[in-house]
Q: What sequence folds into this?
């Protein structure tokens, strides 16, 4: 394999504190060979990055690839292609498949499919409990040995506090985090954030306290057990404040936020232009767990990401078939696709002035790696360190594009962003030194 | 983007400074204009649109008073009433309204149709359009279902009640009935009592009354009041006063609107008992004595006499319950007529 030289772009590698206004990255044998101000071509294939950002490939801690069991929504092939288009070279696959990833056999299947058809790296997350039923612990040690990087019953919380406690204790054997979808089942049961929009639309609400009380419980259990709890898709100002206090107290806690919770609020459910006769009200594309919350919550999530309370931006990519969303709001499935719009939504948070571009890139690269200690298995992941896998992304933060359902690589077209304009486009993605996505204007 | 988007009121209801205004302006020239293809909600109705319906309803009442109440106005129009929930007065009222105007009316209920076989709402709507339905009158247990029907089919849709969200023709007939009883509603203190959280009637009443300038007071136990109603943070809701004490709420009221209490609110843990509810929130003569003399009482039906309303009030001189039912036919005739007039 001949060398590749990416040159002319701004090279940003937050893990190593590298920020070169006009830098070069040399790739050899699928690995980073050199990073410098002005490296010579020396016969390498040159990729021009003039005017672009050059960063480590993004790492997503939270994707629903749907395979096995729900291949009509997404497959490992289509989901990882969507990842490549969105700049992600590593995706953690959530285990709420059918069968769920609660056994070595199921994990082996996912890794086998990923090796055969995956466009980017897939790291499986195993179930906390058998069958995600919340009753009995899954064989966590075997799941870890099979390659799982954490445990989660995502899609559902671990509702029973005693089971959550035992899971945290037991996960210490393999020193992996339990990733919790924080929601108090007794307070949930709604279809959108409980607030004035739910009142106006006559929809059952999910109060912020549903998430906050579940986070508070998990933090108490983290203190009790000394284990690592990772808070999935945080969405409330109260939740961010709880995590911040827990980190201050020295607890082993990490947290992620989705791009949509950094940029969209509950008014999105009313559709793009409700009342003017244009657009669709009751936008099922904006129905998700946790729900889009108030503008104040969005601000708190952005601030939490900016100040380090939140470690990572994670997509919660949740593809669904058309008919699962083209129905009554109450009947619609929860979730939106997120891999291909993550960078653009993240830049919206940057545009408010409350988040730096550098911190956004950090939270898409080394932030998630450190949150789940992924570099124990994969040294150099999320960095441009010499010797690391040559996972790279070339970004145009200025380029505007309109989200078009037909142009999405994901099988899922479920997003409230269809027809909306985003600023910030992934121009090229390299995975292990191979150009897996390139799109020049 | 989060910050820049104003409250989702229609452009016509935006005040010049960009703040949401609930005093909808008259259109240019003051001439009433009706351009709607659907009636889904009252939240974006302008005052002139409400007025034209109420004026038209007045004419329709005259039609209803004739010896042979039948006109050929909507001859050739096919109206389908599609009800996914049980209903007596609303369905019968729409059917009669259509028939008086000379339309063909087909009544479908979920039970006994392909809906029982799992046909989706969209497919049902498309099927009905394909067989020639011009107007679809839809009752559905899920909020927002009429928006889906309107967006996906090309039939004209009238919302006959969706989930907890809206019941616009009930709201309009309440406005008509109230105005006939107490005159213009601007500045009038109108109290809505009961299970507002789960009431589509209450939501449509609140929007309609606010648009016409009434001072709306909402009263009920906090467990039956919807999130942020009456809060200053609720940018996209009409301004209402919230009161949990019914005696205080009805003080000097010009009219009181009661709501049906569903039995399942008890099992859901929202109320301790019917006994306590009726003690705190029943509209009875003793309480009505605090209201303005002769203040009327409305109820959308069906009533739980002895629970949210006493029998004496329900059947007494204050009660407008029967007028509501009669006016309902006229208002629905007006809506159907206006929707079809220029088609």
A:
């Amino acid at each position: 394999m001949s060398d590749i030289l990416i040159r002319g772009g701004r090279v940003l590698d937050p893990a190593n504190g590298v920020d070169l206004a006009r830098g070069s990255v040399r790739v050899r044998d699928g690995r980073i060979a050199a990073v410098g101000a002005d490296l010579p071509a020396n016969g390498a294939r040159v990729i021009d990055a003039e005017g672009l950002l050059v960063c480590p490939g993004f790492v997503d801690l939270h994707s629903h690839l749907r395979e096995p069991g729900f291949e009509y929504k997404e497959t490992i092939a289509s989901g990882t292609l969507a990842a490549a288009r969105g700049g992600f070279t590593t995706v953690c696959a959530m285990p709420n498949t059918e069968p769920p990833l609660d056994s070595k056999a199921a994990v082996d299947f996912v890794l086998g499919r990923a090796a055969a058809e995956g466009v980017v790296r897939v790291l499986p997350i195993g179930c906390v409990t058998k069958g995600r039923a919340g009753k009995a612990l899954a064989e966590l040690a075997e799941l870890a040995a099979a390659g799982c990087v954490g445990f989660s019953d995502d899609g559902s919380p671990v509702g029973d506090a005693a089971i959550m406690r035992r899971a945290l204790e037991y996960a210490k054997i393999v020193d992996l985090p339990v990733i919790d979808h924080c929601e108090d089942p007794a307070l949930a049961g709604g279809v959108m954030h409980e607030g004035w929009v739910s009142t106006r639309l006559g929809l059952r609400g999910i109060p912020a306290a549903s998430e906050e009380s579940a986070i508070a419980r998990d933090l108490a259990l983290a203190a009790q057990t000394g284990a690592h709890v990772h808070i999935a898709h945080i969405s409330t100002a109260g939740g961010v404040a709880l995590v911040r206090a827990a980190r201050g107290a020295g607890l082993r806690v990490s947290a992620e936020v989705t791009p949509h919770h950094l940029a969209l609020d509950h008014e999105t459910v009313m559709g793009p232009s409700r009342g003017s006769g244009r657009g669709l009200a009751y936008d099922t594309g904006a129905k998700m767990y946790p729900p889009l919350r108030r503008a104040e919550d969005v601000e708190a999530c952005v601030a939490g990401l900016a100040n380090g309370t939140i470690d990572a931006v994670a997509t919660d990519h949740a593809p669904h078939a058309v008919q699962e969303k083209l129905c009554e709001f109450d009947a619609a499935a929860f979730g939106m696709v997120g891999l291909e719009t993550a960078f653009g939504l993240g830049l919206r948070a940057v545009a408010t002035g409350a988040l730096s571009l550098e911190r956004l890139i950090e939270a898409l690269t080394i932030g998630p790696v450190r949150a789940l200690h992924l570099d124990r298995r994969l040294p150099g992941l999320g960095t441009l360190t010499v010797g690391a896998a040559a996972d790279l992304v070339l970004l145009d933060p200025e380029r505007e594009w309109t989200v078009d359902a037909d142009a999405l690589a994901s099988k899922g077209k479920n997003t409230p962003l269809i027809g909306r304009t985003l600023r910030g486009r992934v121009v090229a993605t390299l995975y292990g030194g191979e150009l897996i996505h390139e799109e020049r204007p | 983007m989060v910050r820049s988007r104003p409250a989702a009121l229609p452009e016509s209801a935006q005040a010049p400074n960009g703040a949401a205004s609930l005093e909808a302006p008259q259109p240019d020239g003051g001439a009433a204009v009706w351009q709607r293809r659907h009636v889904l909600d009252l939240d974006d109705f302008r005052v002139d649109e409400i007025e034209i319906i109420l004026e038209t309803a007045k004419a329709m009442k005259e039609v209803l008073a004739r010896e042979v109440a039948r006109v050929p106005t909507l001859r050739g129009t096919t109206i389908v009433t599609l009800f996914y929930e049980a209903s007596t007065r609303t369905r019968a009222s729409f059917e009669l309204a259509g028939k008086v105007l000379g339309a063909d009316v087909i009544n479908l209920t979920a039970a006994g149709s392909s809906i029982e076989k799992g046909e989706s709402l969209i497919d049902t709507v498309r099927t009905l359009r394909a067989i020639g339905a011009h107007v679809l009158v839809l009752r559905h247990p899920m909020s927002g279902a009429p928006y889906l029907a309107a967006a996906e089919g090309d039939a004209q849709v009238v919302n006959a009640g969706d989930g907890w969200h809206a019941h616009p023709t009930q709201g309009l007939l309440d406005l008509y009935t109230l105005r006939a009883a107490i005159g213009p509603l601007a500045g009038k203190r109108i109290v809505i009592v009961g299970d507002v959280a789960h009431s589509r009637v209450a939501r449509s009443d609140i929007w309609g009354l606010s648009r016409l300038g009434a001072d709306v007071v909402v009263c009920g136990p906090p467990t039956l009041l919807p999130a942020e109603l009456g809060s200053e943070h609720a940018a996209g809701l009409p301004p209402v006063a919230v009161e949990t004490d019914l005696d205080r709420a009805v003080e000097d009221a010009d009219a009181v609107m009661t709501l049906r209490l569903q039995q399942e609110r008890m099992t859901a843990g929202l109320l301790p008992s019917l006994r306590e509810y009726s003690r705190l929130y029943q509209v009875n003569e003793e309480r009505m004595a605090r209201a303005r003399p002769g203040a009327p009482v409305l109820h959308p039906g069906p009533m739980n006499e002895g629970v949210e309303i006493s029998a004496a009030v329900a059947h007494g001189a204050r009660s407008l319950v029967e007028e509501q039912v009669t006016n309902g036919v006229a208002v629905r005739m007006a809506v159907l007529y206006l929707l079809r007039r220029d088609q």
